[in-house]
Amino acid sequence: MELDISVVIPAYNEEKNVLILHKEITSVLSNLKKSYEIIFVNDGSTDRTEEMLNRIKDNKTKIIHFRKNFGQTAALDAGLKASKGNVIVTMDGDLQNDPNDIPKLLSLMDKGYDIIAGWRYKRKDSLMIRFISKGAKILRRILLNDKLHDSGCTLRAYKKECIKDLNLYGEMHRFVHVILRSKGFKIAQMKVNHRKRVFGKTKYNASRSMKGFLDMLLLRFWMDFSTRPIHLFGGVGLASGAAGFLILLYLAYIRIFESIPIGNRPLLSLGVLLMAIGVQFIIFGILSDILSKVYYKDKENYSIK
């Protein structure tokens, strides 16, 4: 059965927050006079989060328990796949996102947007987290042309068609809007309230930033070359091969016409190496193109409005 709204909340070690958050969300959604469901995804918590969630006796609430901690991206992916709402709202389970912003997100979506991204313009995080976020924002703008003010805000609203065939992995939850933008969906951002964490500890650390950066590089490649990897690998291969060929051509000239020995010259090794690398990259490109065609065999590489 289709519903108007699904709210998806990944939670990891939020034992003191989940029941309060459930009560707040229920209060807000009940006033909207729309059908809804609330989906909590317990990401293998090691505290009493599972116990707290199991106390919820509400037929409008689904609880998904992971066997172990798979990460926020996996939890978000599971929640999105389980949702039945025409609009899916995602938010954190730490009480820092304000459920009172949900009606505002929905109202802005009525103006013709497919995704509404929250912007925590007055963040209540530590100085270090805000500093790291600033650096990540600069990298996202350079690598992904991402113009959102706040890519890390989980509070967002998506139309149902946005998440069709969407598969998340790694730390890709930060880049869902980039993936969807590349498919042609319209995105707007809205200032939202960001509350100070009262219970529990932040899960954000430097290692997540490194993983996010690697996922950023992968996403850039996937956006530009997933359907034509031969253009990237073949281009690099041709450039390397051409450079090696010119070096070897020069060495052949000075050996033939100027009788200069070239057998012990490092330039000879460089020329041969560049030629070999060029051939390898072209082969990689051909193999990648074959794999790409296999991947897209039952998938469309376009989006119909």
Topology at a glance:
Blueprint (H helix, E strand, L loop, with lengths): L2 E9 L6 H13 L5 E7 L6 H6 L6 E5 L6 H11 L2 E6 L11 H8 L5 E5 L7 H18 L11 E4 L16 H7 L4 E5 L14 H20 L3 H29 L8 H30 L10
Parallel strand pairs: 1-2, 1-4, 2-3, 5-7
Antiparallel strand pairs: 4-6, 5-6
List keywords for this structure.
305 residues, alpha/beta, Spore Coat Polysaccharide Biosynthesis Protein SpsA, Chain A, 9 helices, 7 strands, elongated
CATH superfamily of the largest domain: Spore Coat Polysaccharide Biosynthesis Protein SpsA, Chain A
Instruction: Give the C-level CATH assignment of the largest domain.
Output: Alpha Beta
Low-pLDDT runs: none
Number of domains in the coordinates?
Answer: 2
Query: What is the averaged pLDDT score?
Result: 86
Cα distance, first to last residue? 23 Å
Number of strands: 7
Helix content: 40-55%
Enter the CATH topology name of the largest domain: Spore Coat Polysaccharide Biosynthesis Protein SpsA, Chain A
Instruction: Summarize the main sheet.
Output: 7 strands, mixed
Model description:
It is built from 9 helices and 7 strands. It has 2 domains: about 5-225, Spore Coat Polysaccharide Biosynthesis Protein SpsA, Chain A (Alpha-Beta Complex), CATH 3.90.550; about 230-295. Helix 1 links the parallel strand 1 and strand 2 (about 35-40). Helix 5 packs parallel to helix 7. The radius of gyration is 25 Å and the shape is elongated. The chain has about 300 residues and is α/β, with parallel strands linked by helices. It has a 7-stranded mixed beta sheet.
